[in-house]
Amino acid sequence: MSNFLAVATVSAVLQRLLTPVASTAVTGAEVWVDRSDLKRQKDGINIYMYRHSLDSVSRNEELPARRGDGTLTNRPKVAATLHYLLTFHGKDDDMVPQRLLGATLAALHTRPIITHALVEAVTDEAKQPSGAHSYLAFNDLLEADELVRVSPDPMSLDELSKLWSVFFQSPYQLSATYVASAVLLEETLETPLPAPPVTRPQLTVRGLLQPTILSARNAADPRAPLVTSSVLQVEGSGLRGDRTRVRIGPAEITPDPARLTASSVDVDVTGPSLRAGLQPVTVAHQWLVGDPAQPRGGETSNAVGVLVAPTITLTVAAGQIEVTSDLSIGPRQQVSVALVDRTSGESARVVDAPERSEETTKVTVPRPAASPELPAGQYGVVLTVDGAPSPVTRNAGGTITAPLVTVS
Length: 408
Hints:
3 domains, mainly beta, single chain
């Protein structure tokens, strides 16, 4: 890695690289580092780093920097991309800017790498008593894991005009844009502790096994939603892993090995975190690695939606109906309570439940009074969560017997 001076060192290297190029193209031309809106009355090239960004490729390569106890294993690093605006100054009637532009394009195309030799030259000059950029004597860009590469950053006319618009009342100069990446930076405040030596190598080899779900349904009735104590039947391929978990929304269930094969798995729907409504079903694998075997993260299947219906009990008080669900209900789920005809099962009145700020198992709605549209009598009660209706109990004649509420 390299310290915070690496950014300035890259600019100094560009200045050193382009100085002989500019003087060869135009006699007496110089290269300087300054703002692009400060026009100088001399021939030369101005280098201005107008912005930086994070290098997405190198950024994804960083490993965790600390152990579980907080000790440092390697220093955190940031991978930066430096964006440069090169402007070319001189008499336009002598085509000085154009000659400098052509020489710069050819030089940076031929020598796009910030080599160790260039960095050493800048560092050695900074160490001289009268050398330029004396503060760069302590840079350690040479210790970076990879060399910095300079490449063109083509801009459309619209993008270039927006860039120049940030320079207030500054006339446009012939210019080119380049990026230098990746510049890897780190702090040197702590010394990482070395990793302990490997005392006994362990190697585990296994094939790549990606579980795939084709269907997930109620084993007793494929058209019915799941309820607590239902059996969820999942069919697909690659379902058996070293360790297999079936997830129904936030709930995670370990299937019985006797009911698990590579193409199907049956699990009893249960669990304290099981939630009502439309829930995603996935199959997750864990690898058993080492001796003794330890579980490690593995593959996860695609998700298939299933309806999980709540089973309810009622508490009826003056003016209110409190519905208690055996499954949790999230704060953003769509919830309604319906009074249904005991014979036909058709909804006679639907009441939307009030909004909730947290997960709950209780929903309270106003108890409706009898009216011409809702005659007095007994009605079945159905709680619907995200399209999953709670079941009702019927007698041999098909009449709903529970849960019931009386409207008077």
